[in-house]
Amino acid sequence: YPWETIKEYSEILFQYYEGVAKISINRPEKHNAFTPQTIKEMSEAMELARQDERVGVVILTGEGGKAFCSGGDQSVRGHGGYVGEDNVPRLNVLDLQMQIRRIPKPVIAMVAGWAIGGGHVLHVVCDLSIAADNARFGQTGPKVGSFDGGFGASYLARIVGQKKAREIWYLCDQYDAQDALQMGLVNKVVPLDQLEDMTLDWCRKILEKSPIALRMLKASFNAELDGQAGIQQLAGDATLLYYLSEEAKEGKDSFLQKRKPDFSKFPKFP
Ligand code: 2NE
């Protein structure tokens, strides 16, 4: 596909094609493990994709066909987090997880090869996951001295159930694409050479749908799990819709025109 580069980065690719933004980790020599810099770049790209009115769906993936992402780069893990060039330890992937959940557009994980550790959690928090038949899933935290007790535990348990989520974390086993499909961890499994075709096919179907309906649905799915923060997101979308109404405009206009608002013509629905 003729993907066009939106912005050049050092550790990711950020591309656009027909309504779709693709954010791809580009460290295949490390199975696409992330550093603080990788996450900084992904985070900026996600924000740009959010602001870009051409974009209706975001694909998250990894380059090379052998790994989606193998989690935090253990070779730069220091005292208190993953250390970048500024020598500051960070766990900025947690902020990226929030961005993936917050962006009011569907995010699809396109998974080839390893989705492991913090890389597994990244696909878990995406709206949808499409896996190639070579995909392998799992958590490694308790093996390598780490854990993600946030979405990595609670949201995973919402998806696969409490028993399975505990098994995944306590045993640190690896699961193939069919296992993942069976436990509802991915939406679809396709041969590796059809992965991008199928993902773009799903993107096209989504792009034909009402953007506001999709936005409200994403916020509604989130609200159930996210408590006050989820309600805030959903309520923000309700405010957006209200701002589009004549009723809300009457409030603003009356203030600017220094007159009393007249809401009498607006219906009081049962
Ligand atoms: C993914 C896995 C199972 C693949 O195994 P294999 O045998 O197919 O590949 P190999 O040889 O292990 O990996 C290829 C190269 O990639 C590097 C390896 O060191 C190797 O490099 P060379 O030795 O050839 O130079 N590599 C792979 N993953 C890496 C990583 N995460 N960091 C740095 N280098 C990595 C196997 O590679 C594996 O188990 N990888 C480690 C997975 C892991 O434990 N990730 C971190 C989990 S913790 C986390 O991500 C996290 C969190 O828990 C909470 C918050 C934030 C992050």
TrEMBL record:
<comment type="pathway">
    <text>Quinol/quinone metabolism; 1,4-dihydroxy-2-naphthoate biosynthesis; 1,4-dihydroxy-2-naphthoate from chorismate: step 6/7.</text>
</comment>
<dbReference type="GO" id="GO:0008935">
    <property type="term" value="F:1,4-dihydroxy-2-naphthoyl-CoA synthase activity"/>
</dbReference>
<feature type="binding site">
    <location>
        <begin position="139"/>
        <end position="141"/>
    </location>
    <ligand>
        <name>hydrogencarbonate</name>
    </ligand>
</feature>
<feature type="binding site" description="in other chain">
    <location>
        <begin position="114"/>
        <end position="118"/>
    </location>
    <ligand>
        <name>substrate</name>
    </ligand>
</feature>
<keyword id="KW-0456">Lyase</keyword>
<feature type="binding site" description="in other chain">
    <location>
        <begin position="70"/>
        <end position="74"/>
    </location>
    <ligand>
        <name>substrate</name>
    </ligand>
</feature>
<feature type="binding site" description="in other chain">
    <location>
        <position position="140"/>
    </location>
    <ligand>
        <name>substrate</name>
    </ligand>
</feature>
<feature type="binding site" description="in other chain">
    <location>
        <position position="82"/>
    </location>
    <ligand>
        <name>substrate</name>
    </ligand>
</feature>
<feature type="binding site" description="in other chain">
    <location>
        <position position="146"/>
    </location>
    <ligand>
        <name>substrate</name>
    </ligand>
</feature>
<dbReference type="InterPro" id="IPR010198">
    <property type="entry name" value="DHNA-CoA_synthase_MenB"/>
</dbReference>
<dbReference type="InterPro" id="IPR029045">
    <property type="entry name" value="ClpP/crotonase-like_dom_sf"/>
</dbReference>
<dbReference type="GO" id="GO:0009234">
    <property type="term" value="P:menaquinone biosynthetic process"/>
</dbReference>
<dbReference type="InterPro" id="IPR014748">
    <property type="entry name" value="Enoyl-CoA_hydra_C"/>
</dbReference>
<feature type="site" description="Important for catalysis">
    <location>
        <position position="82"/>
    </location>
</feature>
<feature type="binding site">
    <location>
        <position position="258"/>
    </location>
    <ligand>
        <name>substrate</name>
    </ligand>
</feature>
<comment type="function">
    <text>Converts o-succinylbenzoyl-CoA (OSB-CoA) to 1,4-dihydroxy-2-naphthoyl-CoA (DHNA-CoA).</text>
</comment>
<feature type="region of interest" description="Disordered">
    <location>
        <begin position="250"/>
        <end position="270"/>
    </location>
</feature>
<feature type="site" description="Important for catalysis">
    <location>
        <position position="243"/>
    </location>
</feature>
<feature type="binding site">
    <location>
        <position position="243"/>
    </location>
    <ligand>
        <name>substrate</name>
    </ligand>
</feature>
<comment type="pathway">
    <text>Quinol/quinone metabolism; menaquinone biosynthesis.</text>
</comment>
<keyword id="KW-0474">Menaquinone biosynthesis</keyword>
<comment type="similarity">
    <text>Belongs to the enoyl-CoA hydratase/isomerase family. MenB subfamily.</text>
</comment>
<dbReference type="GO" id="GO:0005829">
    <property type="term" value="C:cytosol"/>
</dbReference>
<protein>
    <recommendedName>
        <fullName>1,4-dihydroxy-2-naphthoyl-CoA synthase</fullName>
        <ecNumber>4.1.3.36</ecNumber>
    </recommendedName>
</protein>
<dbReference type="Pfam" id="PF00378">
    <property type="entry name" value="ECH_1"/>
</dbReference>
<dbReference type="InterPro" id="IPR018376">
    <property type="entry name" value="Enoyl-CoA_hyd/isom_CS"/>
</dbReference>
<dbReference type="InterPro" id="IPR001753">
    <property type="entry name" value="Enoyl-CoA_hydra/iso"/>
</dbReference>
